[in-house]
Amino acid sequence: SARLADLDAVRSDSLLKLIALANADSRPNKIDVGVGVYRDGQGNTPVMRAVKAAEKKLWETQDSKSYLGSKGDIAYADLLRPIVLGEHSGDERIVGVQTPGGCGALRLAIQLIARANPAARVFVGMPTWPNHVPITVGCGLEIVEYPYYDRDARRIRFDEMMAAIEGASAGDVILLHGCCHNPTGADLDADQWREVTRVIVERDLLPLVDIAYQGLGRGLDEDAAGLRGILDACDEVLVAQSCDKNFSVYRDRVGCLFIKTASREASDIAMGHVLQIAREMWSMPPDHGAAVVRTVLQDPALTADWRAELDEMRDRILRIRDKLADADPRLEYIRNQMGMFSMLPLTPEQVLQLRERDAIYMADSGRFNILGMADDAIDRFVAAVAGVIG
Ligand code: PMP
């Protein structure tokens, strides 16, 4: 009989290995562009001002930690509606629920699809955030990979993407990054969103939009424009949202799942399934982070300060993108990409060379965090990359 001791070891995540390697490197000029968190000019990931203020307020006013129920904080999900859904905020066919991070929202969304339509295939662009694949497979659904980005040509493989999704059948799922594509930084433009949306409608596909970096691309509304176009056009939409990046509350696990169907009744039934699935997995989402986000969004002054600090974060990303593009014409493509990530067309050997010779740590894929370097390290980063890039 099988025992725990008979388990094979799991293959360790290459990004986690990279973090360990970087941490173990004691060279003082080390640059860690591997891990995907926001960093300021000093290399820190600070708690946002409005978040700190909300935590204080919460500490002072919270008089109970008794259970809230499997929906978590209902006011939190309501307050996110105008931010995420914009003009669709008042659409009562859209229902939302608090989740443990964007990851929890994705898991619920895909598990819900698996209940409704176990034959659905999930079309996932390549490359993508690596966890999309195990979550989908873990829910028992088949993955169909479609080409998304040509790293070496530094452009979206739009024609190939369109050809692939034109091959999807009614009920198949298309997983899209709402903005700030991870790992490439390459977002669809407005025309491309329209084209993709047209195919979704024509072929009767189910869009699942993963929006984990809203506000870190062009702005809160601009970053949700593609999603909102899909909401305009489609009766059924799933949105897996995360506040972990735009509120910088990563470890507090703050997300939301929005479900749209053709009627309020059908959405409520779908939500009933989602709550049952959540109950099996975590029963209720953790409260603190969502309570903090709610406290910010209930207070106009804190909301204004959160937006201002988010603008500062975005400006820093854009400034570094400009700096990298200005420094070398081969990095020009980085200027107009979005969010925290971009990819360098490097071989694994070149990535290794940067690591060993220059103490620069990035993923083997060439993905790097735009914010991984402090302001005074940008020149050294560009020079080292320019020395190896093809
Ligand atoms: N989607 C994408 C594209 C991501 O990059 C991430 C986090 N790296 C998530 C979802 C999950 O975010 P969270 O930490 O809120 O679970």
UniProtKB/TrEMBL annotation:
Q: By its UniProt entry, which Pfam families does this protein fall under?
A: Aminotran_1_2
Output one GO MF annotation. Answer: transaminase activity
Q: Which cofactor does it need?
A: pyridoxal 5'-phosphate
Q: Which Gene3D superfamilies match?
A: Aspartate Aminotransferase, domain 1, Type I PLP-dependent aspartate aminotransferase-like (Major domain)
Sorted alphabetically, which keywords does the UniProt record give? Aminotransferase, Pyridoxal phosphate, Transferase
Q: Where is the Aminotransferase class I/classII large domain?
A: 29-384
Which family does this protein fall into?
A: Belongs to the class-I pyridoxal-phosphate-dependent aminotransferase family.
Subunit description: Homodimer.
Query: What's the protein here called?
Result: Aspartate/tyrosine/aromatic aminotransferase
Source taxonomy: Bacteria, Pseudomonadati, Pseudomonadota, Alphaproteobacteria, Sphingomonadales
